[in-house]
Amino acid sequence: MVSAAVDLDALRQRAWAAAATVVDPEIPVLTIADLGVLRDVTVKDSHVEVAITPTYSGCPAMNMIALEIELALAREGIAGAKITTVLSPAWTTDWMSDDGRRKLKDYGIAPPVSGGGRRALFGEQQVACPQCGSIATTVLSEFGSTSCKALWRCLDCREPFDYFKCH
Amino acid sequence: MATASIAIVETPLVNYALRRGDDALILGHRLSEWCGHAPMLEEDMALANMGLDLIGQARELYSYAAQAEGAANTEDTLAYLRDVRQYRNLLLVEQPNGDFARTMLRQLFYSAFADPYWRAMMGSSDPTLAAIAAKSEKESAYHLRHASEWVIRLGDGTEESHRRAQTAIDELWAFTGELFHVDDGDAALIKDGIAIDPERLRGVWSETIATVLSRATLQRPNSDWMQQGGRAGHHSEHLGHLLSELQSLQRSFPGATW
Ligand SMILES: [Zn+2]
């Protein structure tokens, strides 16, 4: 019994490690673990179940992420894993790891500013340019190239940049 | 139309989820019609993004309606295989895009309701509806801000943009009363804490609209006469045309995938 429990826990850890390598297809420097999209890995009767949560209601990347998880587990010799989507609690940018925020900035995307004024009807936000660090920046459009990004511009280095929106 | 429509086992909860799903799908589809036609590239992306948010919300609500119904329906059959009379969306959201001002006013009227609505629904005693609400309210906050900023820009812009924005308000106003519609089925859900009473939101909706219109130098119409019928399946002729486009593939090639 003890060794069976140990085996199941080892399987769970192996499955988590494999699933955690899957990257967001739209921001390939971030893994689903960095993003907080990977919620849980459980083993029931030696079957692995991976729970993920969508970032945005209409996020087209979720199907691809689910498929990538299955493939990553299969490469680890874990076949027939079940991928489930959980809605609650709702994903928030606060779940993004510090490591994830750093990687995002290095990639040229300004990380989400906590408490970034989503609620205000005419919100003012301060977002630092990921290129030069200047805070003299201005929003061009709150809806960028993907659901999770807004388009900003730096007034100092003049470069446009993506900002990962607060949710 | 090659494929027969489905039957729905209507219960108050199924109807409730379907109606909100229909609002989101139809408005999302309308916004998607702008793709490639918006006044500028940033706006093209913004409208497509918001359409995607709404269609995502519709998928979750349809999946839940199908689960609550407990029959053979799925999110896809609910979207693709219902007739116009089976759709229960607000008349407001099926109104044609018209010019950009009209699209933005329609978006403002809807979002000024949807945003506080989803926030209030986070307290629903139904865990799935509460979870859908928690996602949707984050998105609706952006939609409301976007529409508000555009309405102010258009109203307080040129003589021409002001005229178009005011015309849009005058033409769409009669469809705003339906936002607060409640029937007997809804009333039972409200009593059980599953739904919230939309009447609670009338004050905040009116205040948002008044603030934005005043900053936009636009006038709120005096008329209190309101058109309704969408919630009971009585639609304008526009919805039939929209659905024939939205459903054409699945009606012609049932079960087609790619
Ligand atoms: Zn810069």
Automatic annotation (TrEMBL), chain A:
Residues 13-85 form the MIP18 family-like domain. Gene3D superfamilies: Fe-S cluster assembly (FSCA). Residues 120-165 form the PaaD zinc beta ribbon domain. Pfam families: FeS_assembly_P, Zn_ribbon_PaaD. Signal peptide: none annotated. SUPFAM superfamilies: Fe-S cluster assembly (FSCA) domain-like. This is Ring-1,2-phenylacetyl-CoA epoxidase subunit PaaD. It comes from Rhodopseudomonas rhenobacensis. The lineage of its organism: Bacteria, Pseudomonadati, Pseudomonadota, Alphaproteobacteria, Hyphomicrobiales.
TrEMBL record, chain B:
The keyword Nucleotide-binding does not apply. GO terms for cellular component: cytosol. It holds the Pfam family PaaA_PaaC. One of its GO terms (biological process) is phenylacetate catabolic process. Signal peptide: none annotated. Keywords: Oxidoreductase. Gene3D superfamilies: 1.20.1260.10. One of its GO terms (molecular function) is phenylacetyl-CoA 1,2-epoxidase activity. InterPro entries: Aromatic_CoA_ox/epox, Ferritin-like, Ferritin-like_SF, PaaA_PaaC, PaaC. It comes from the Bacteria. The keyword Iron-sulfur does not apply. This is Ring-1,2-phenylacetyl-CoA epoxidase subunit PaaC. It comes from Rhodopseudomonas rhenobacensis. Its EC number is 1.14.13.149.
